[in-house]
Each structure stands twice: as C-alpha cells, then as structure tokens.
C-alpha cells in the first residue's frame, strides 16, 4: 500500500481496512505522531516505511531490522512478541493463548471450549435455555398486556 507523498497529517480513518497489507509506505508525509493502536490488526505487515520523525510502531523491539537513511525509517520483519523471550507485560489468563495483533501488540484468545470473561466459562452458550426463557417471558408479558389493555380499547 503506497501512501507516500499524500500530504497526510494523521493516519487516515479507514486505515484499519488495510490490515491485510504486507508492505506499507508512509514516507514523505508531514506525520508527527501515530496514535496508539494505529496498526492494530496488521499482523501480516512485514515492511513499513515511515517519515524519519516517527519511530517504528511498537518500538524497535517489535521489528527484526530497523534501517534509517537521511529521509525515512524502514521497519522490516515484524516480530511475534508471543514467541519472544522477553516477559510479556500482560500475561494471558489460564485457558488462553497469546496471539499477535500488530506491531508490538498482542491479544489473548481463549482455548476451545473456553469462552467469556478471562476464558473462565467452559462449553457453549446455552442457546436452547436462553431462547426458551426469552420466548416464555415475551409471550407471558404480551398476553398480560393484551388482556389488561383490551378493556380500555372496548370502552373507546
């Protein structure tokens, strides 16, 4: 994705739609800062050319090679922080695994069959029980309202 020399003062709002990009060029733009999470979901990004004023997203530790020339910074080879020997700032809870989520970003995904808050619930969502209770409550409330409001409709 070539966004070089596009007079960008900030990251475009639709940038998240380009999360499948492998190569991204942002050079020759008057960018001064990158908001945190600008590259959230960019797990396939392998080469990122940036203006010299900006650091590589996630820091130099998130990339295998950072090259600086007179007008740009080239970040190459995104590292998987889940496989690194460095201690993670936010270790994943029990029943979950670490997964990359962009340069310098990670996420915790629940192991199967766990789900929910901190992956503490096991099994699947009880759809039949939930649907039965919801349907029963809806029908009961509808019949109650129909019965009580019917008298008022007859008097009009």
UniProtKB/TrEMBL annotation:
The chain crosses the membrane at residues 125-146. It comes from the Eukaryota. Residues 108-119 form the EGF-like domain. The keyword Transmembrane helix applies. It comes from Origma solitaria. This is ARAID factor. Gene3D superfamilies: Ribonuclease Inhibitor (3.80.10.10). GO terms for biological process: positive regulation of osteoblast differentiation. InterPro entries: ATRAID, EGF, LRR_dom_sf. Keywords: Membrane, Transmembrane, Transmembrane helix.
């Amino acid at each position: 994705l070539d966004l070089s020399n596009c007079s960008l003062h900030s990251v475009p709002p639709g940038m998240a739609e380009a999360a499948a990009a492998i190569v991204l060029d942002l050079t020759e733009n008057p960018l001064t800062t990158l908001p945190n999470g600008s590259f959230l979901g960019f797990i396939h990004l392998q080469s990122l050319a940036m203006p010299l004023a900006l650091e590589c997203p996630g820091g130099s530790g998130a990339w295998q090679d950072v090259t600086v020339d007179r007008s740009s910074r080239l970040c190459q080879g995104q590292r998987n922080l889940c496989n690194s020997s460095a201690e993670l700032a936010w270790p994943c809870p029990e029943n979950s695994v670490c997964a990359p989520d962009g340069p310098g970003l990670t996420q915790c995904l629940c192991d199967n069959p766990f789900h929910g808050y901190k992956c503490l619930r096991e099994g699947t969502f009880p759809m039949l029980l939930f649907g039965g209770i919801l349907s029963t409550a809806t029908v009961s409330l509808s019949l109650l309202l129909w019965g009580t409001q019917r008298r008022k409709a007859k008097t009009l």
